[in-house]
Design brief:
With 397 residues, the chain is an alpha/beta fold. The chain has helices at residues 5-20, 42-61, 81-94, 106-112, 114-119, 151-164, 179-194, 213-221, 233-245, 261-267, 269-272, 287-296, 306-326, 331-338, 385-389, and strands at residues 28-34, 70-76, 100-101, 123-125, 144-146, 171-176, 201-205, 226-230, 251-254, 277-279, 345-346, 351-352, 370-375, 378-381. Strands 2-1-3-4-5 form a five-stranded parallel beta sheet, with helices on both faces. Strands 7-6-8-9 form a four-stranded parallel beta sheet, with helices on both faces. Strands 10-13-14 form a three-stranded antiparallel beta sheet. Helix 1 (5-20) packs parallel to helix 2, helix 6 crosses helix 7 and helix 13 (306-326) crosses helix 14 (331-338). The protein starts with a helix and ends in an 8-residue tail after the last helix.
Amino acid sequence: MTLTTNALKAALLASTLAIASTATAQEIKLGFNGDLSASPSAQSGQAGVLGIQAAIEDLNAAGGVLGKKLSLVVRDDLSQPPKSIQNMSDLIDSEKVVAVFGPTNSGNALAWKHIPNQRKNPSLGCIGSATDITKPAGGADNYMYRVSMVDRAQIAGIVAYTKNRPQSKNVGFLVETTGYGQGGLKDLEALAKAKGLTPVATEKFGVNDTDMTSQLNKMKSAGVDTVLVWAQGTPIAQLLRSMEKIDYSPVTLTSWAADNASFFDTAGKTLAERPIFMRTITEDRTPVQQKLYDRLAPKLTSKSAFSFSAHCYDATLILAAAIKQAGGTDGAKLKEALDNLQAPVAGIMKTYNKPFTPDQHEALTAADYRWTHWKDGKLVTYTDATVESLKPADYAE
């Protein structure tokens, strides 16, 4: 049975309270701060919490960490930066969590990334993908880590595909006007330039626009045969609907937001099958991924959001390994351990061998991504001659 968004949020909070109700000074408290109810991406936050809770259950069943049980405190930031900032201070200062997972929305992480750095409290992102989230800020120690996809790595992939596809002659960029879209445009321009790829047209649209025919007609007039799109799920769907209006069918490569159920529902089955994108998990799941999927599927509001459950599950295991190596939960010692994990961590996505270094805080890279598209209502692995021709060096950022 699939729960409604509000019902699942209530269930998540109730489950968290049940865990927290037995919390003692002998327990290690973790936090989650992200959207669970306010935007289409809330389903990703809900999936992430389910992944963290599953990892905590498994760790506790195995005796906990350093002989202590783990518990989780959840805060819904309603997709609002001010609320997300408030939640971070509450979780770290009042709840005394040793680390915070999330957020759902990249913009919120960019709004509060100074707080983990100031408080020396690690943040492990497992949903938001903005490139700048894990970049050091102002010379401060960097406590921002991530076990998820990264915009720049995705963009390196779709730029490499475009460059290596012989049929792609004229390229266009289409991005939304949000911080997410503009950050993507920055990476698109930089990586395309590095590959010697020059767009013949660049257009923008609002995140709530439903008609992009004006921008698309300009693309069509410029002879654009391949469009690279950086936007959220619903506007990507509206873009495809606008393409249909003017009978325009360029090859379309997009951000991973096209994996969102809101994209599929808005575009419809036929149009949804047109974009190509990258994500970490498809229907071709490994046995360990399938096992976690079967365990969580009845609680997922969107089956396509399962990848966030896997990311957050793995982030929890990595943090637990760092706590064990550090011999405690002191923030500075946790950072030192995360930057140089000695023991491999067998996760859902892969086995992590030294996933971070002092200068590199991304546990997943383009090598861990899969080319994906929708087919018959499912997210399946995509391949063609161009995908098969790509080498690891082609994905260089």
